[in-house]
TrEMBL record:
InterPro entries: LRP130 (IPR033490), PPR_rpt (IPR002885), TPR-like_helical_dom_sf (IPR011990). PPR repeats lie at residues 919-953. It comes from Limulus polyphemus (Atlantic horseshoe crab). This is Leucine-rich PPR motif-containing protein, mitochondrial-like. PANTHER family: LEUCINE-RICH PPR MOTIF-CONTAINING PROTEIN, MITOCHONDRIAL. It holds the Pfam family PPR.
Length: 1222
């Protein structure tokens, strides 16, 4: 974990999207505010995709559930999770060489929560408080490390000399003045002997000579230390000599070392020599990150000029369009944080813009003043924006209003409003509602309106938000008076809901109906609003929602509205009656009918949509019927035909596909390359090479940029080889790879590659097999070289009866790939030929890969399968050979599956004297074999043999044999064990006591004893055992018990199943999780967010590209399994895959109208503070907003999007203590 000394930001402000958190992340107030401020500053719309009220309520529930689950974790489990979190942090550290303070605070908060810390954890935490936090001031770092140190002492954590050395190092890195004597005294009082290290600084210059005399070659670190020493004194000539000597000795300093020397020169007042030293920089890999770290430290030490000079040396990255990306945002941010003079920041920003380094530098500086609450300087930067004719937006002023609100300075608020008008962005509705009016005294609305008018604002722009605030404060009567006094047009869309709420809270119907009358008579005319809108109906619908569809006061409201001749639409009447259902009475019905009129268009929200199935949700039969219906009505059938084409291609209905193609061609339908690819795959499956090649040619001619899926190309190549067109197949594969590469998962393509290589191996041509393997696996890397993929290399030799070549091939594969394909077949061939020399060679190679014991078992089974039972027995009599029961069971299961009963008998017989063998289990498999072939006599003989061998059969063995004998009308020669109730006696009580005491070994022993009696744990007990095993990190045993439950269609409660899936995902066990999909019901898969765990498993096993490739296959199926939470983890851990993910989300959105992937991409950009990209998505899919909202809500409800609740509360707080009204 040494690399933790150069750490980086890992822990998120937001919880990991895995359903179960491995550490208690507590969001920092300032970071949350900063995140939201930046979004406000940079986004045009500033409007999230989900309903904030519902989102907040959902998150509250989720946080409560997560907290409850965390509280159940034992301290040991929490410490283990903390270790893993630190390990993850350590891995990511190497990328950037720095960490954020928030990361350290998160870990520290978890340690305080647990109440203890291991020695290693404490040591790593202390080390994080020094130079690893370059963007923090030394004083702040020292304050943090002292807080941590004192807490560790308070918690009585185990400390040794390494902890004191780490603290001492941090003090030195932070340039903290402390008393060495007091430090040593503290150590000695604790009984810790300090390390006696002596530094002779005066003689350090002689170190090179001393090292040479000791026959030690000075290295990079030695020269760097000397150069930093000279740099501190400004001795440039001596530095030049050292540089020259290092070069003469072929010692080349790293860029990081050169930057350390630059930093030493700058902070010690020798900046004039910086340019000479910078000439030594080579800009190797990682230079930019090292440069960022030094620049941050330079700004902390008031050396921003040198920092700017370094910034100019950093290579620029390019944007997708080929232009250079803006540079220096981190530099601007650090200057703002360190309170560099605004004039200085502006000078640097102007120069950055002039030199083309960063066109938006002034805007970035403005943004950071708001983000880091430097509101005193914010107006200076906004003024500069105005001077540069950069548009100034209302939301730039929101943080300023918040700060002024806390200071209760109303005059300053009015001054800022005046500034906004001068800048050409008068305060809009949201600004006034959320940030201005809540901070003003509005008890006398006349005063407020007149002051606003003096500033140059219109009465209409003030009254609308003012009425909203009054209604929100339940000042209904005052709102009614203000409307009468200032009869302007009101925004009914925004006011009906709050009016309904105010009415319910105050009961002031008179004032409410006055306001409502004004709303209906003088609504604000909006460009997208139809005329004659039913605002009274909208008010009633909102009122019902506020009252939770209760009819207690509805009749009174309707009666008063009817008296005032207020009308509603017939549509609204239907919706109201549908909502209240059981609460309807004759009076309500009569009143509604009396108020109904056909002159109104309907309220915006009164249309309750009917759920007609979309063609995407229809099956083939439904689509065919729908097609007939459309044809009968003379309507457009293209969409349905296109969908039918896709489904019939999947179902391999060639004739129907051809009919649909003909129909579409008659309508001059324009086929997409993707549709042609589906048709091509259909013909490949049906072995119709000519048609497949025809459509391949059409695709190439239609769109040369279209990438056919790799598995389709491989399958077509396989068909070509089967038809003796090897060269064409090879060229096609090479061309596809050179043009498009490989996008699919390597695991996904494994079987396609295997079929391809098997096809060429079947031709018997060794050269072709090797050439194709080299092309497909080595050069193009369509898949990884596994036993399956390597098998054809062996097959071609064995099929040709060329065993010497097969042995050599096996040797090459074992040495190069650590795989042993076709080992069993090779063993058997050599055994038949009695080629002991080659057999020994293959054994030795297998032992190197799998170990000697496993190889001996494999060889013994091959001897059995060749009828050489004596030789097999001799192998198993090898001294020191112990029984490997799991391996023996796998052999037995294979023999059972393949009906190799004779081989199973031989295996049971020769393992009789094997040490530690489970003979009952072996005999149980043999009984299963005899039952499979219905051999009653041999089954009875097993019973006799067990007695002769003195094997005590378990209850399950006796039950199985008894059932088999009874089924065949045979007498059972033993007493059949009676099942004992799981619920009776003290057994269950004892078992649960073992679980409570966390004694899983005794619990497992109890389980085995029950199974010996032919019984099983019930579901509740099994669930408790699985959970206990997981808490002890005994994942394999927990998994085995779970899989046994699955086989019997029993499933643990969702929390425990999630716990299991989480552990498997963290272990990167993709295969085990994937195998669970086939046995878990769809309802359970959905309940536990199965696909998110599978995605996390791919991420943790470094197989992320495979996950993306699988998600890109068969979109209509994959969308039902899309891991919306897991994909966030992918984007967080693998930002380099952004382009692939964006492309994938576009596919889902455009081809399937499936918006969850696009929604997750928006969330990722928001959390990563890439607000421009987030806003682009919002703007692009604005028309599909309702479609985007729904999946986001569902993600939240499924816990796939688990924000920290405090973050959302902060967002609400920043907007004036209220939820957004829009």
């Amino acid at each position: 974990m040494a690399s933790l000394l150069r750490s980086r930001h890992v822990f998120n402000l937001v919880t990991r999207i895995s359903g179960i958190r491995s550490i208690n992340y507590r969001a920092n107030f300032g970071d949350i505010k900063r995140c939201f401020y930046e979004y406000l500053v940079k986004s045009e719309a500033c409007n999230p995709f989900w309903n904030t009220n519902r989102f907040l309520a959902t998150l509250g529930r989720l946080q409560h559930e997560t907290t409850t689950e965390e509280e159940r974790l034992s301290p040991q489990a929490r410490l283990h999770s903390l270790d893993k979190a630190l390990y993850r942090l350590d891995l990511d550290v190497r990328k950037l060489g720095r960490i954020a303070r928030k990361d350290v605070e998160d870990i520290f908060a978890e340690i305080k929560h647990i109440g203890t810390s291991s020695s290693t954890q404490s040591l790593l935490l202390i080390r994080c408080c020094g130079s690893l936090l370059p963007d923090e001031l030394p004083e702040a770092r020292t304050e943090l490390v002292n807080e941590i140190w004192n807490k560790l002492i308070e918690l009585d954590c185990q400390m040794d000399v390494s902890h004191y050395n780490a603290l001492l190092k941090v003090y030195l890195e932070n340039e903290y003045m402390f008393s060495p004597t007091d430090f040593l005294t503290t150590m000695e009082n604790k009984g810790i002997q300090p390390n006696r290290v002596r530094n002779d600084m005066e003689n350090a210059k002689n170190i090179l000579e001393v090292m040479r005399n000791a026959q030690l070659e000075p290295g990079c670190d030695t020269y760097c230390a000397l150069l930093c020493g000279y740099a501190e004194k400004g001795l440039i000539d001596e530095m030049k000599n050292i540089f020259q000597e290092a070069e003469n000795n072929d010692v080349y300093l790293m860029d990081k070392d050169i930057l350390d020397i630059v930093y030493t020169l700058a902070v010690n007042g020798h900046s004039m020599y910086v340019d000479e030293v910078l000439g030594k920089i080579r800009k190797l890999a990682g230079y930019n990150q090292d440069c960022i770290n030094i620049i941050l430290k330079l700004v902390n030490n008031k050396q921003e000029d040198v920092g700017y000079k370094l910034l100019k040396t950093m290579p620029r990255t390019s944007l997708p369009d080929g232009n250079l990306a803006p540079a220096g945002n981190f530099f601007i941010r650090q200057m703002v944080r360190c309170e560099v003079a605004p004039s200085k920041i502006l000078d640097i920003c102007k120069d950055m813009k002039k030199s083309g380094l960063n066109e938006t530098s002034v805007l970035k500086a403005t943004e950071n003043t708001l983000v880091y609450q430097k509101t005193d300087h914010a107006l200076q930067f906004i003024d500069e924006l105005h001077k540069e004719e950069i548009p100034v937006r209302c939301h730039y002023f929101w943080p300023i209003f918040i700060a002024l609100s806390r200071q209760k300075d109303e005059n300053a608020i009015y001054s800022v409003l005046k500034k906004m008008i001068e800048y050409g962005c008068p305060a809009n509705y949201e600004t006034l509602t959320d940030y201005v009016l809540p901070s003003l005294n509005i008890s006398d609305t006349n005063i407020v309106v007149e002051k606003m008018k003096e500033l140059g604002m219109t009465v209409g722009s003030v009254i609308n938000p003012l009425i909203y605030i009054l209604l929100e404060k339940n000042e209904t009567s005052q709102a009614a008076v203000s409307i009468e006094q200032y009869p302007v047009r009101l925004n009914a869309i925004l006011l009906t809901k709050v009016l309904a709420t105010s009415c319910k809270n105050t009961g002031d119907l008179e004032s409410t109906l006055k306001i409502l009358r004004h709303l209906t008579d003088n609504p604000e005319r909006l460009a997208d609003t139809v005329q004659n809108v039913d605002w009274c109906g909208q008010f009633l619908l909102d009122y019902l929602s506020v009252c939770k569809n209760s009819t207690d006061t509805l009749e009174n409201v309707l009666s008063r509205m009817a008296e005032k001749d207020m009308k509603i639409s017939h549509n609204t009447v239907d919706v109201i009656l549908n909502r209240i259902k059981d609460g309807v009475n004759d009076n309500i019905t009569t009143l509604l009918e009396q108020m109904a009129t056909s002159s109104l268009q309907g309220a915006p929200d009164d249309i309750e949509s009917t759920s007609f199935a979309h063609p995407r949700e229809m099956n083939v039969e439904e689509l065919e019927n729908h097609l007939l219906e459309l044809k009968s009505k003379g309507m457009n059938t293209r969409g349905v035909l296109r969908r039918l084409l896709l489904l019939h291609c999947r179902k391999k209905n060639v004739d129907r596909v051809q009919q649909i193609i003909t129909e579409l061609e008659e309508e001059n339908f324009s086929f997409t390359p993707a549709m042609y690819a589906q048709i091509m795959e259909l013909h490949i499956t049906n072995k119709n090479l000519e048609e497949a090649l025809k459509y391949k040619k059409i695709i190439d001619e239609t769109d040369k940029t279209f990438a056919i899926d790799s598995h389709k190309i491989l399958n077509l190549a396989t068909l070509l080889i089967e038809r003796n067109h090897y060269q064409e197949a090879l060229e096609m594969i090479k061309n596809h790879y050179s043009n498009f590469g490989v996008k699919e998962s390597k695991d996904f393509l494994q079987r396609n590659v295997w079929r391809l290589l098997t096809a060429v191996a079947n031709t018997g041509n060794v050269d072709h097999t090797r050439e194709l393997f080299h092309t497909v696996v080595t050069e193009c890397a369509f898949t990884t070289p596994t036993n399956m993929v390597l098998g054809p290399l062996m097959k071609v030799h064995i099929d040709n009866d060329n065993l010497p070549a097969a042995v050599e091939e096996f040797k090459e594969i074992a040495k190069r790939y650590q795989q042993t394909p076709w080992k069993g077949e090779l063993f058997r061939k050599l055994i038949h030929l009695e080629d002991t020399e080659s057999l020994q060679k293959v054994m030795d190679l297998s032992s190197e890969v799998h170990g000697e014991m496993n190889t001996l078992y494999d060889l013994a089974c091959c001897f059995i399968e060749c009828g050489r039972v004596k030789q097999a027995k001799k192998i198993l009599e090898t001294p020191g050979l112990r029984a490997r029961n799991r391996r023996l069971e796998s052999f037995c299961e294979r023999y059972l599956q393949q009906n190799m009963i004779t081989e199973l008998e031989d295996l049971v017989n020769i393992t009789r004297d094997l040490f530690d063998i489970d003979r009952d289990q072996m005999y149980y498999y043999l009984l299963c074999g005899y039952a499979k072939v219905n051999d009653v006599k041999k089954a009875l003989a097993v019973w006799t043999a067990m007695q002769d061998e003195n094997v005590q059969p378990r209850a399950k063995t006796l039950r199985f044999l008894a059932e088999f004998l009874q089924k065949n009308g045979e007498e059972v020669p033993f007493v059949i064990p009676e099942p004992q109730s799981e619920e009776s006696g003290s057994g269950k009580m004892n078992f649960m006591e073992y679980i409570k005491a966390e004694d899983v070994d005794k619990a497992l022993e109890f389980k085995r004893s029950m199974e010996d009696r032919g019984e099983k744990l019930n579901l509740m007990m099994s669930t408790a055992l699985i959970e206990a095993l997981l808490r002890k990190d005994r994942l394999l045993e927990a998994t085995n018990i779970s899989q046994d439950l699955f086989r019997h269609q029993m499933f643990p409660k969702s929390q425990v199943l999630k716990f299991l899936l989480n552990r498997l995902a963290r272990a990167g066990d993709v295969e085990t999780i994937k195998n669970m999909r086939s046995v878990l019901p769809s309802s359970v898969l959905k309940l536990v967010s199965f696909d998110n765990f599978l995605a996390n498993a791919y991420i943790n096993s470094d197989r992320t590209k495979e996950l993306l490739a699988e998600l890109g296959q068969d979109l209509s199926e994959s969308k039902n399994r899309f891991p919306s939470g897991g994909i966030l983890g992918v984007m967080k851990k693998h930002p380099e895959l952004e382009n692939e993910i964006v492309e994938l989300t576009e596919k889902y959105a455009n081809q399937e109208q499936f918006f969850i992937p696009k929604n997750m991409l928006w969330v990722h950009y928001f959390l990563e503070e890439e607000y421009d990209k987030a806003n682009q998505i919002f703007q692009k899919y604005r028309n599909d907003r309702r479609e985007v909202v729904k999946p986001c809500k569902k993600c939240v409800e499924r816990k796939e999007l688990v924000f920290n609740l405090e973050k959302l509360k902060m967002m609400v707080f920043l907007k004036g203590g209220k939820l957004s009204k829009k």
